[in-house]
Design goal:
Blueprint (H helix, E strand, L loop, with lengths): L6 E4 L4 H13 L3 E7 L6 H14 L3 H6 E8 L1 H5 L26 H16 L3 E3 L15 H15 L4 E3 L7 H23 L22 H14 L1
Parallel strand pairs: 1-2, 1-4, 2-3, 4-5
Helix pairs in contact: 1-7, 2-7, 5-6, 7-8
């Protein structure tokens, strides 16, 4: 069944957000997207956004009819105060204890706040994000408890019935590939494999069996392992 409430998808042009967009397009009659320029070192994802959006709309007339405007918000001021390896030219590290240095403190909280404001202006009641607590990322703002608390705060602060949907929250990367196949068939899987970008280094070399990227950063390794399990 489709939902007429309308949804705003937090869309980065990565594997997760593209899968979430397909999920939303299958469920909502009106879907818009929002992205963020926060000074990320993998800025190539911003270049991939219109490519992925255009190709997804071309997959089916139904999706083309449902997919509405896209918005990119300048959050470079926020990124400038973050010590993260995603906003600094430093080596990416994953310590034994604690979050990796690719963690951008408060990033999803800021994203959701800005997205909620935009959704309110656009008359959309649902936010869709690719947050996932099963990944080995260690990002505190990807946990279900964090998202539930943020949803409650947004409802109070905006005096609205805004809802946050996180369809990937309990999925492995292999299951995320499977969800893409359920939503859009092998054509969507191939689109995500070849056009989306998740590499922290912003590397579009390859292609590898799982897509493009450096193949060494934690994001590439997670995506590659998920692809291998999906294909097994």
């Amino acid at each position: 069944m489709t939902d007429s409430a309308g949804a705003l998808v937090l869309f980065s042009a990565g594997q997760d957000s593209a899968t979430c967009l397909a999920w939303a397009l299958e469920r909502f009659t009106r879907v818009e997207t929002i992205g963020f320029d926060y000074g990320q070192r993998h800025r190539v994802e911003l270049l991939q956004r219109p490519i992925v959006l255009g190709r997804m709309a071309a997959l089916t007339p139904r999706w083309a009819a449902r997919l509405g405007p896209d918005k990119v918000v300048d959050l470079t001021g926020f990124g400038a105060i973050s010590p993260s390896a995603l906003t600094r030219s430093v080596a990416i590290q994953s310590p034994v204890a604690g979050p990796p240095n690719t963690f951008v403190p408060g990033r999803n909280l800021v994203f959701l706040s800005v997205a909620a404001a935009h959704a309110h202006a656009r008359g959309l009641n649902v936010l869709v994000g690719g947050m996932c607590e099963t990944d080995a990322s260690g990002y505190a703002d990807c946990r279900r408890a964090t998202i539930e608390a943020m949803e409650a705060a947004l409802r109070l602060g905006m005096d609205s019935d805004v809802r946050i949907e996180t369809p990937l929250m309990q999925l492995t990367k292999a299951q995320t590939w499977s969800l893409a196949q359920v939503c859009g068939g092998l054509a969507l899987v191939e689109l995500i494999r070849t056009e989306t970008h998740t590499c922290y280094e912003g590397d579009r070399s390859g292609p590898h069996p799982w897509g493009y990227g450096c193949g060494k950063c934690p994001s590439c390794q997670l995506r590659a392992a998920g692809w291998q399990a999906f294909m097994a």
